[in-house]
Amino acid sequence: MASVLGMLEERETAARVRVEGLREEAARLAGVLEAAEIELDRRVIAREELMEALAASAAETTAVTEAAAESAPVPGSIVPPWHEGLPVTVLAPDYQGILGVLEERQSAGQQPLKAREITARLGLETSSAKVEGVRSKARRLAERGWLLLEASGAFSAGRRPVAVPDAGSSA
Length: 171
What we know:
Blueprint: H1 4-69, H2 93-107, H3 115-121, H4 128-143, E1 147-149, E2 155-157
Antiparallel strand pairs: 1-2
């Protein structure tokens, strides 16, 4: 009859082999999960960009049609270059929200914010897709003079006129 100690050692060895196999499977599944999350984020960003581009295209078509009758800017996803006297109301609500967060922060005398912090202050989940959407909008606002992009990549409230070489690309 086998010794009790020998039986326990066999069971321990079998358990150790099973644990190692499960660890390898967990590591493999973690890699698969990470790849799936990256793919999901890419698809969310692609859909958001497409929706924004379609909205901008529709807004441009509407703006061109209405511009013939009236020269006032149309609220929407188009971000016109900032100039003195241009109201914030020409911007879509998402853009107005970003400006509001940064202006509130500046009036409190606080430091500029990174895109992730702006996303959180807007009450959005801080997934990479949402953060990249906010970063894209904040950069567009900075490029068009509505806010300032710091060297650190943070954004702050502030206006500056920008030169408009051709008014055709405003989305």
